[in-house]
């Protein structure tokens, strides 16, 4: 197993992983990212989003897509994990844990204050996995989102 930063030639595989994750999360119609968008956001001169690839025998087994967030209380950046996905045939072999450990080390090396992510409440395998690593559910918080027409109206 090797973990490495994504490369331009990985764009089609990254898109495939995003779509596979959307299928797993029962929302394939919501995965609308394009080759051009991934290329422009992950591989621009000053990227704000990053992707780590896990390879097994030169095959892409999964990825972690992340970006920096900020805690005003800590006065420090942190890492927000947008997506963690390991293909089914590679699960249970430590690849997801290795990606999380990689990002945890990046937090430590850079003095970031925390590492966080969301998980769907029905995704019991992931919840059990995260708890086994010492992650704590932030149940007292409710996530809000504005998108589509509501976003447009809010911005008027």
Explain this structure to me?
It contains five helices and five strands. By secondary structure, it is of the alpha+beta class. A five-stranded mixed β-sheet has the order 1-2-3-4-5. Helix content is about 35%, strand content about 25%. It has helices at about 10-25, 35-40, 95-110, 125-130, 150-155; strands spanning about 1-5, 50-55, 60-70, 75-85, 115. The protein has a single domain (about 1-155), classed as Aminopeptidase (3-Layer(aba) Sandwich), CATH 3.40.630. The model has no long low-confidence stretch (mean pLDDT about 95).
Distance between the termini: 49 Å
Q: How much of the polypeptide forms β-strand, as a percent range? A: 15-25%
Q: Count of helical segments?
A: 5
CATH H level, superfamily name: Gcn5-related N-acetyltransferase (GNAT)
Number of strands: 5
Quaternary class: single chain
| Widest β-sheet, arrangement of strands | 1-2-3-4-5
Q: Work out the count of structural domains.
A: 1
Order of helices and strands: EHHEEEHEHH
Low-confidence parts, pLDDT < 50 over ≥5 residues? Answer: none
Q: What is the third-level CATH name, the topology?
A: Aminopeptidase
């Amino acid at each position: 197993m090797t973990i490495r930063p994504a490369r331009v030639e990985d764009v089609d595989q990254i898109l495939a992983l995003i779509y596979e994750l959307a299928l797993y999360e029962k929302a394939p119609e919501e995965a609308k990212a394009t080759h051009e968008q991934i290329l422009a956001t992950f591989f621009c001169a000053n990227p704000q989003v990053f992707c780590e690839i896990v390879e097994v025998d030169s095959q892409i087994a999964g990825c972690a897509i992340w970006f920096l967030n900020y805690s005003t209380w800590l006065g420090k950046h942190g890492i927000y994990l947008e997506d963690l996905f390991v293909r089914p045939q590679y699960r249970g072999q430590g690849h997801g844990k290795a990606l999380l450990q990689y990002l945890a080390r990046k937090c430590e090396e850079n003095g970031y204050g925390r590492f966080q992510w969301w998980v769907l409440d029905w995704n019991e395998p992931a919840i059990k996995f995260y708890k086994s690593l010492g992650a704590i559910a932030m149940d007292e918080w409710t996530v809000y989102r504005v998108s589509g027409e509501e976003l447009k109206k809010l911005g008027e």
